[in-house]
Amino acid sequence: MDLGLQDKRALVCGASAGLGLACARALAKEGAHVWIAARRESLLKERAIELSALGAASVTWCVADLSEPKGVESVLAQQSEFDIVVTNAGGPRQGDFRQFTRDDWLTALDTNMFTPIELVKRVLDGMMERGFGRIVNITSSGVKQAVQGLDLSNGVRAGLTGFMAGLARQSVSRGVTINNLLPGTFETDRLASNFLAQSARTGVDAATLLAQRLAVHPAKRLGQPEELGAVCAFLCSQYAGYINGQNILMDGGSYLGA
Ligand SMILES: NC(=O)c1ccc[n+]([C@@H]2O[C@H](COP(=O)([O-])OP(=O)(O)OC[C@H]3O[C@@H](n4cnc5c(N)ncnc54)[C@H](OP(=O)(O)O)[C@@H]3O)[C@@H](O)[C@H]2O)c1
Q1: Residue 184: its pLDDT value, please?
Q2: In the chain, domain spans
Q3: Architecture of domain 9-185+224-250
Q4: Which residue in 85, 147, 146, 80 sits closest to 117, CA to CA?
Q5: Comparing C-alpha atoms, which of 180, 197, 195 is closest to residue 231?
Q6: pTM of the predicted model, to two decimals?
Q7: How far does residue 252's CA lie from ligand 1's centre (Å)?
Q8: How does pLDDT run across 168-217, given as a tens digit for each residue?
Q9: Mutation choice for ligand 1 from 39, 213, 214, 248, CB with most ligand atoms inside 8 A
C-alpha cells in the first residue's frame, strides 16, 4: 500500500526513543522528510543516521526540551511548515495527587498539554491553507480508563483530549485531521520506569509486577513500539483523511468497554 507520504514534511516530537522513535521510523520508511526532536543530542544524532538508512527523504534533528516554550521555538526555528506533526514527550511522573505541588502540575501541563497545543497553533493554519495536514497526539489509554498511580497523567491528558476534540471538527473540511493514539502497555523505557516506580512503592520487584500485569492482560504480551509506529503512519496517510477526532486505543483489548 502506498501511504502517499513520500516527501511529506513530518515533525516527530520525543523521537530519540520509545513510541516517538517508532513513529519516526515508520514515516522514514515511507520516504517522508523527518524532523526529530528530544533532549538527548547523542541519541538524536544516532537516530538521524538510522532514519536516513531506512529511507527518509531527509532527516533533521533538534535538541529541544519540549516542557518549555523555548523548546517549541527551537523546533520551529528549523522549519515552520509541516504536513505532519506527531506530538509526544515523556509522560508525567507517577504518584498520588496528594504529593504533587502546583509546580508539578504546571510541568505536566506544559509538557503534555500546552506544548502540543502551541505546536498545533503554529502549524495548523498553514496546513489548512495548503489543504493537507495530519496531527497525531500520542496520549495514553488513561484517557479512556484512568490508570492507578498516574494521577498527573490522568488529569492533564484529559485537557489535551478535550481541546483536540473541538479543534478536529474545525480543520477537517480543509484536509487536516487530528487524532490521538492511546497506548496501553508498550515495551519502552517509560514502561520500565513505571514498573520500577511501582516496585519502589509496593516492595514487589518489577519483573513480578510485569508478570502479574500480563497474566490478566487479554493479549498476554506487551505492545511493540513498531506496531504503534505503523498505525501512526497510516493515520498520516492519504487514506486516513476521513478518520478524524478519534481516540484510538492500542492496548491489546485491555480496556473492557464495548
Ligand atoms: N510505553 C507505554 O506503555 C505508554 C503507555 C501509555 C502512555 N504512554 C505515553 O506515551 C508517551 C511516550 O512514551 P514512551 O513509552 O515512548 O516513553 P519513553 O520511552 O520514555 O520515550 C520518551 C521520548 O520522549 C522524549 N522526551 C521526554 N521528555 C521530553 C522533553 N521534555 N522534551 C523533549 N523530549 C522529551 C525522550 O527523549 P529525551 O530523553 O532524549 O528527551 C524520548 O525520546 C509518553 O507520554 C507516555 O506517558 C506510554
Answers
A1: 96
A2: 9-185+224-250, 188-222
A3: 3-Layer(aba) Sandwich (3.40)
A4: 85
A5: 180
A6: 0.97
A7: 20
A8: 999 999 999 999 999 999 999 988 988 998 899 899 999 999 999 999 99
A9: 39
